[in-house]
Each structure stands twice: as structure tokens, then as C-alpha cells.
Amino acid sequence: MRPLSRKLLAAWLLAASSVALAEVSVVDDTGATVRLAQPAKRIVSLAPHLTETLFAAGAGERIVGSVDFSDYPAAASRIARVGGYSRIDLERVTALQPDLIIAWQSGNAAANLDRLRALGFRIYVSQPNRIDDVATEIERLGVLAGSAPVANRAAESFRQRLAGLQKRYGSRPPVRTFYQIWKQPLMTVGRRQIISDIIHLCGGDNVFGQLETMAPTVTVEAVINANPEAIVASGMGEARPEWLDDWQRWTSITAVARGNLFFVPPDLIQRHTPRLLDGAELLCQHLETARNRRPMK
């Protein structure tokens, strides 16, 4: 082979290997493989918690579109809006020409995601149902955005803190817990909802943890019969919801009799982000308070 031909071959092999190294792929929470020719440079996030997790993964600067209430960190508030997570403006998404869309399985309408796929957009679908899934998601998003070093550090920090909470509270005496996410209709969390996993982390026992529905509707009578030792609510904002005071009339419930009516800010426990551990720590402290209020034997 002539020297010139060898040089051309070497150049071709180098170029081919560079292309191969640029390709990235991960498996999302539906089991689908999401493959990109190179790390995403233009990302649209279709849920507030996904926007926050992208920032944690070091990909904040690559987000070109997000939905309403994407307000953490502060920089997220300056990103162009594409509607709400349940009412996506498909024209705005299309106009942004993202090379990757991050979607929320239980929050985004499947029909909208199907239309976006039909237009040729690559979609990563997220549905973390357990606390440790958050760390895995940070890592996956880091791969897709080309920010793996930052993402891996954030994921490791999350896992270390989670391990600390598990060690501290995991073997504590169980506390029968009712978690209220809405007043009318009265709604709670089922077995597969991540908040149920947090209750378990804290040594609690979700009184409706046998239900398969993510956010089942229950009756006041069912709560009374379950007789929780603690009632926890998060409401819609930073203020303690009046829902908790509504339980005061049901003095037969142990949680009411002992004053175990607790509040956790929704942004810390209803968003599947690294801040979930802040909410978990607060919930664990509340359940520890409930344990300390047990009558002396």
C-alpha cells in the first residue's frame, strides 16, 4: 500500500472512531433505547421536575424549552415556555427544533408524545417510582447531554445521602402513615408512587400502600378505619394546607389524638429531583416525632 493510501486510511479510521465515540444511548423508564448521534445540544423538558434534574445533571445550559412552573433553580425561570406539562404547545416545541425531548410518562399525554415522535423527535421518557431511581436518572441525562462527569458526581452525592437516611431511619419502629395529596376528592399515594417509597425509607407504613394506583381516591371512612398514627399533607404551595386542620373533628384517629398532623413543602417531596431527599429528611423527622409521642409503657 502506498504511503498516501495509508495516511488516508488512518484519517478515515480516526474520523470513524470519533463518530462512534460521539454516539450516546441510554434506556429510558419505558425500556426503550434512546440513541443520539452526539450529545444533545437543544433539549426541551416537559415537566418542572425534569428541568430541575437536567440542571442537576449539568445540562441546564442546553435546555431551550420547558413547561410552566419550571422554577428551580432560578435560571430555569428564564427558559422559553412550551405550555404546561398536561397541555403541551406542540407548535412551540416544534419551533424550538430540539434534538432531544425529556418527557414525563404519568404527566404528559401519550397522544402528544406520539405526535412528537411522528415528527421525528427523539424522546426520553421518565418515570422514577423509587428514590434511588433519581440518581440513575441524573446519570442517564448526563450521558444524553454530554455532561456525565457533573451528573455522576451529583448521582453519587445523592446515593451517599440516601444511604445515610436509610441507616438512620430504616430500622426504626414502623409508623402507620396516611399521606394526603388532595382534599376533594380525597387522594393519597399508592404502592408504586415515589412518596410511598419515602414513607418506607423513614420506617413508616403507608396505610394505603397495598393500592396499585399511583394516586388513588379514598374515603374519610377508609382513613378512619385505617387509623393512621401520622397524617402528612403537602398541599400546593409553601404554606401548610388547611386540610390538616379538617381532620381535627375525627378524634378517634390516633394521629389526631396525638397531634401528629404534619406538613412537607410539595416542591421537596412531589418532584422527582435531588431535593427529594430534603423532603424525605423532613418526613423522617415528622415520623420520629410521632414515635416520641407514643404513651410510655
From TrEMBL:
The keyword Signal applies. The keyword Flavoprotein does not apply. SUPFAM superfamilies: Helical backbone' metal receptor (SSF53807). Pfam families: Peripla_BP_2. Transmembrane segments: none annotated. Keywords: Signal. Residues 1-22 form the signal peptide. Residues 42-291 form the Fe/B12 periplasmic-binding domain. GO terms for biological process: cellular response to iron ion. CDD domains: BtuF (cd01144). It comes from the Bacteria. PANTHER family: MOLYBDATE-BINDING PROTEIN MOLA (PTHR30535:SF34), VITAMIN B12-BINDING PROTEIN (PTHR30535). This is Periplasmic binding protein. It comes from Candidatus Accumulibacter aalborgensis. The lineage of its organism: Bacteria, Pseudomonadati, Pseudomonadota, Betaproteobacteria, Candidatus Accumulibacter.
